[in-house]
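User: Hey, quick favor. My workstation is busy. Could you predict this chain's structure for me?
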Amino acid sequence: MRAVHFGAGNIGRGFVALILHRAGYDVTFVDVNPELIGMLQQADAYQVREVGPDARIHTVTGFTGIDSSADPDAAARAVAEADVVTCAVGPTVLRFIAPVIRAGLALRDGDPVTVMACENAIGASDTLRELVLDGAPELADRAIFANTAVDRIIPPQDPHGLDVVVEDFFEWSIDRGPFAGASSAVAAPTIPDAHFVDDLAPFIERKLFTVNTGHATTAYAGYAAGIETIAEALQSPEIRAAVEASLADTSRLLVAKFGFDPDEHAAYVARAIARFENPALPDTCERIGRQPLRKLSRHERFVQPAAELAERGESADALVAAYASALRFDAESDEQAAELQRLLAELDPAAFVAEVSGIDGGPLQAQLVGVVQAAKG
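Assistant: No problem, here it is.
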């Protein structure tokens, strides 16, 4: 079996490709980093080292790499011949890989290929589908796009090697719906380490509004306090209280919306915070906080749950406070941080909230406008 994975970075090698390899797939990595692709082309294997209570080491073999910027035709041919296509490139990069997938579908002859976007975003595979089929609706029957929810913490790695250190926890949930009624020839792929679910929304939102909300709350509060690492930030009683309060907000929403058992969800939250504190996975507040404009957008980790709580007539004060901390993120290494500070300086508060966070009216607007006004002051 053959899989094509877009994005040969840490998530690609240390999570998605590892699971596909364990499922029996030969993986072709597609990336635009020539140095990384060169290392993959020359290597026979790399290791994924899991750290934590269930630590173990995996050896990944049977892979190759294609530089899609240098040889887009080869990348398209790989898609045309694949059984599964995945990506972990970041939601903003989907539009750049879509033309390559489109070209591959145009060359395809035979059963549809399964395409799954493994991104920290709601409905990422749906988004990718729209981008791939834009101007080519006749290719719709050549692929099955299935949304997924993915979760694994991977800190920065040695950029000059292929081995990856990861936490010993992971979760990959896949929407079974797109495969319903399909013939046996195009049934859901067999991936033992993933699990297929009838309703993906609870898994996506539980992860996004727990792990991502908690991680980002820690990062922005820690950065504002001048603390370097996530683990160090959580040693601050004030920051830990802020993180717990943000996740108390999202927990109320998730339990009410999806019917999660309160005790089981509380255990999920506690484990998420413990994962952030794993001393074997050091990560920085600056790295986790990068791309603040995306993280402050309408359907992301702060605004979406806060808006839903406000619409229910419930408090979202802790999420709004986390939003306020994010406004102070001005890391010079991040382009979005610079753009955030420019917009904060140039726009009036209501215009900022509308443009950055998609809130133009409704019960949450006044609170967000208030914290933006305070940040400008």
